[in-house]
Design goal:
Elements lengths: L1 E7 L2 H7 L37 E3 L5 H20 L3 H8 L12 H7 L9 H7 L4 H9 L2 E3 L11 E5 L13 H8 L7 E11 L7 E3 L10 E6 L2 E6 L9 E3 L7 E4 L4 E3 L8 E11 L4
């Protein structure tokens, strides 16, 4: 339920991330689970996915698959930089992807990585869909496809590139369903959604995703905010930083989570960028 729209500062984000002294506990007991277990014995539905916690770990991408995903992301970032200048493109191309922050200014970063610029092209999506994890998806969900909620004309896999010690690269705590509701993205009748997030470049223990297990099982109102020019959400209720749990998986280790789970990216500490991909798996529950 949307309560209103207003402009906010970084206070909302800081309230969830603290100043680095609070380190959320790591998630436990979420897998990897076999594909037949992702609905925990309940009839398949969007609300049943992930059981009590609302999330499961999926099998890892193979090392060469993860490396190829990093190559595809870097090619996209270099192409984005080329639209700025040849020197910007060369600066990005000359560094490893996880050292991207040494090649760009804050202004360049904002221009390079708009939402549209972070959506991989159709050819890259088609290649990634041939990788091993998608066999797991098909066994878990039956016939499935990836969302195109923004109607760009092909299935979407989006990447994120979070610079170290940079809270500006982190969003607000939210349910993914809120974006769809607020932006009016249609959900086909009889089709359910599950989110997949995978760290492609990460130093284990310094970056990850923060989630509130079980938060998909209770109602929560929210209001829409604008933080530093970006869409964000503030939710009502008693949930706070102490409820957050960290998914600090290693490179190539994906987590699947319920569309109602509250979550937010963790601030990246250390010296290297966190690079991840995310996508929404769409499936017809009548065919599982």
């Amino acid at each position: 339920m949307i309560l209103g729209v207003h402009h906010a500062s970084k206070v909302t984000t800081e309230a969830w991330h603290g100043q680095g002294a609070h380190q959320p506990s790591s998630l436990r007991g979420i897998g990897p689970l076999p594909p037949e277990a992702v609905f925990f014995g309940a009839p398949p539905s969007e609300t049943a996915f992930g059981g009590p916690a609302g999330m499961v770990q999926a099998p890892a991408f193979a090392a060469d698959e993860r490396g190829r995903i990093c190559d595809l992301i870097k090619a996209q970032v270099v192409g984005n930089a080329r639209a700025l200048s040849a020197s910007a493109a060369n600066a990005v191309a000359d560094r490893p992807l996880d050292q991207y922050h040494h090649a760009v200014t804050d202004v360049q970063h904002a221009r390079l990585l708009s939402k549209r610029n972070r959506i991989l092209p159709a050819e890259a999506v088609a290649e990634i869909k041939q990788m091993s994890v998608f066999d797991y998806f098909r066994r878990a969900f039956g016939p499935c496809y990836l969302s195109d909620e923004e109607n760009i004309g092909h299935e979407q896999i989006c990447f994120r590139l979070v610079r170290p010690n940079c809270r500006a690269d982190i969003g607000s705590v939210h349910r993914d369903a809120w974006f769809w509701d607020h932006l009016g993205f249609p959900v086909p009748t009889g089709v359910a959604r599950t989110k997949m997030w995978m760290p492609a470049c990460i130093t284990r223990g310094t970056a990850g995703l923060l989630l509130i297990p079980g938060s998909h099982r209770y109602a929560r109102d929210y209001r829409v905010e604008t933080i530093d020019g970006k869409l964000a959400f503030a939710s009502s209720g008693d949930a706070g930083r102490d409820e957050l749990r960290g998914y600090f998986g290693g490179p190539g280790e994906p987590i699947l989570f319920n569309y109602g789970v509250l979550h937010v990216g963790a601030v990246t500490y250390g010296e290297l960028c966190r690079v991840s991909i995310e996508t929404t798996v769409m499936y017809d529950t009548q065919h599982i």
